[in-house]
Each structure stands twice: as C-alpha cells, then as structure tokens.
Amino acid sequence: MKNTPENVLDKIKNIHFIGIGGSGMCPVAEILHKKGYNVTGSDNYVSDTLQRLIAQGLKVYTKHNAKNIENAELVVYSAAIKEDNEERLAALKNGIPCIERSVMLGLLCAKYKNAIAVAGTHGKTTTTAMITQILTMSKKDPSAIIGGKLPFINGNSRVGKSDTIVCEACEYVDSFLQVTPSMAVVTNIEEDHLDYFKNLDNIIKSFNKFALKATNAIFVNGDDKNSILAVKDAKSPVITFGMSKNNDYYAENIYERDMAFSSFSLMKNGQKLIDISLSVPGRYNVYNAIAAGAVTHYLDVTISDIAKALHVFTGVHRRFEILGKPNGITIADDFAHHPTEIKSVLTAASKMGFNRVIAVFQPHTYSRTADFLDDFAEELSIADITVLSEILAVREINKYNIKSEDLAEKMSSCICLRTFEEIADCIKKIAKPGDLILTMGGGNVYVCANLILEKLNGK
User: Which residues have a catalytic role annotated?
Assistant: First the structure.
C-alpha cells in the first residue's frame, strides 16, 4: 500500500468512498460505518445499494465533486474510478491518502483474528454466502463481505461481534493479494481474465501467492489439478475437499431430487459426518456446499448445524434466482458469464423438467468473448434456444473486432438482437407455458430479465 501505514484504520475516523454504490464497495462501507467510522461516499448512479446506504444514515453524494472529500482522512476508490476523477485529484492535491478498494479490504480483514477469504474462478460468491449463513445460524456471529445479496441477511454484508470475518476475494488484477487471511479457500482455478493474466500459468502463480498468505489453513478443491498446483509448496496445513475419496472432505451417495436439487453424505477421511439435502440446483453447488462444510467444521460448528443451514440456504442474488412465473413461464436470472459457469447452470436447468430452456445471454467483455468464442458456442447450445444481446464492453475497447454475431454464427437456434427491449419483445412472442427463460451474464442483463417479466405480466 503506497504512502499509507498498515495501521491506518487505528488512526483515523473519516473515510470517503468514491463509487460507494458498487457491489464491492458497499459492503465494506457498511461494515466500517457500523463499526463507528464516519463514512461518506459518492456515486453517479443511484442504485438500490446506494439507497440502502442512505437509509442507514450515510452521507452520500449523487455526483462526483472535489468538495465531497473535504473532511476525509482517507479516500477509497473502486477499480472503475479512473485517475483523472476529480475527487481522486482533489485527494492527491490535498495530501489525503487514496487507496483502491482491495487495499481497504485487506486493512479491514487485518482487524479480525479469523479472516476467511474465499477465492476461485467459479463459486466464490455462493461458497462465501454458505459459510456466512452456517456461521450465523450456529451463533458464531461473523462479519461478512459477499459479492452478491444473501437473502438470509438481506444484503451482502454483515457486522458481527466475533473475531471472524468471511470475505469474497477476487483474483482480477491480483486484488486478493491485499488480504492476509487466517484461512484461505480455493474453489477452483481456470482460464479467465486473460486480458490481465495472459495465460493459465500466471493465474496459478497468482493463486499460489494468495494461498501462501494464509496463516492457519488452506482449503482447496482436491479434484482440481490447477488448485492443487497452486498450494503445492504451502507452509500452512492444506485441507482438501471434492467428490473424490482422496480428499479430506468429500461427498458420497450423491443423487439429484426434483428440480436438480442434490442430496449427499458429507464424509471426512472415510467417516460419514451427516446427510445433507440442498435447496439449490446443480452439481456445482455440491462442491460449494462441501467447501463450506469443511471450513465451518474446522471452526467447530456442529455437523447438525451445518446440515440445517445448508438445507435452508436458497442461494444468492443473481445465482439461479427465480424472479417470477407469469402464465406458467418461469423467469430466472444468473451471473454466469464464463463458459464453465454457463455449462453448469444450463446443465442443471436442463434437468429441472421444463419443456424448453431459453437462454438470454449478455456477453461480458470483448476479451473474454474472443478468448472463449468456441467454448461459449458449445455451452450455450445446451439451451433449446439462445438469444444474444450486444457485448458489454465494461472496461475495454473493441481491439478484437468481435461482435455477438460472431458467436451466433457458430450456433444453431440462436437469435441475435441489439437491445433489451427487442429481446423482451422476442421472448414475449416465443415463450410458452412450461418454458424456462434464463438470463445470464456478469453485467446488467438482470434489467432485461425484469423487462421480460413485466411484458409477460402484461405491463
């Protein structure tokens, strides 16, 4: 951290967040506010999260302005805030320390004795949420920072009175290296964010650095060779989880019930701990549940409390979230934006008894679309019909000269439309009772899902 002492949170009270309404910024700001810091923030976009912060009494400005930081002793900015932002420039001019959100996360986690950081290419949000729900229901009273809204706590953050915090740790631009966890969790490692990492070897090296920072224990997917490579020289104890009996924690007697919900026996070193029945679909959620079970069992949560919490866990916002069932047509939304995630979600959906699965996909970044074009085409073809929107640029320019039509050309039963309005009108025409309409993407495709819901409700 540049020009900022590690113990800065022990010396200040006034903190300003630029881009405070972001999904990563909001929970950090909430926790600091509830722990007694004077937190202010600014954001150009008035979102639900921003409204929630205002309702909690935070001073939030709906426009960036240099005057917003006048009383700040520390300024925190999100990755989306550029160097020429007027509030960042004002902080620099006035000698106010200015740090990126991941640095603040590391500072905050350092104030807890037990910091559990959950990382991985896929599954980290759900695994973080599962751990949080188990610890909360078992009276362990954790604090938590989750990448999506957990209905059980009605938000994506929680402030507890214990010395434990559970946080989601993102690998993009090595952000998770700012955190020094007591326990690190690696759900899996796969090629992604190649605009930054360039290749899989660099991704594994980054996860290795993250895992080696863990002071007490490392929980790793023992079925995933890349994850095992990332912890091969670990100094802290390595605890493995997965489907194979070679793992410390694993699942046996797995079977899928109605709606692709799974039940299984949670095992540890050859001994059955308890039977678990999930209320979220897909084999991928079995992995998430085993990981959460392993971490919380290590923290002395009883196996009965683990099973109970996992059974009533109904998911996280934008993770196969059912939005409505107008006229017998089910509308669901999911954050899936990588081919592996799409495969997992669509495979689960195909087993849930719907007449047809109609996928609405918003490609997320030009680089990811270009890097995995054939993989996207293959996995999206699991759906009976796929509707594509334009590629969401996010932080990029289109130096790849790629468009959604390039993906559509590689698929049959694919429709390519420009706007959410056009997509919603299309879905209204082709959807029939018994169909599942599943919107997917890492951007704002949930807006399209809500628009489809409105149109099918006749609004």
Answer: 124-125, 168
For residue 49, what pLDDT is reported?
Answer: 80
Domains of the chain: 8-100 (3.40.50.720), 112-312 (3.40.1190.10), 321-456 (3.90.190.20)
> Quick check: 297 and 116 in contact, CB under 8 A?
no
Q: What is the pLDDT of residue 179?
A: 95
For the stretch 65-109, pLDDT in tens is 999 999 999 999 998 899 999 999 999 999 999 999 999 999 999
Is residue 229 scored above 70 in pLDDT?
A: yes
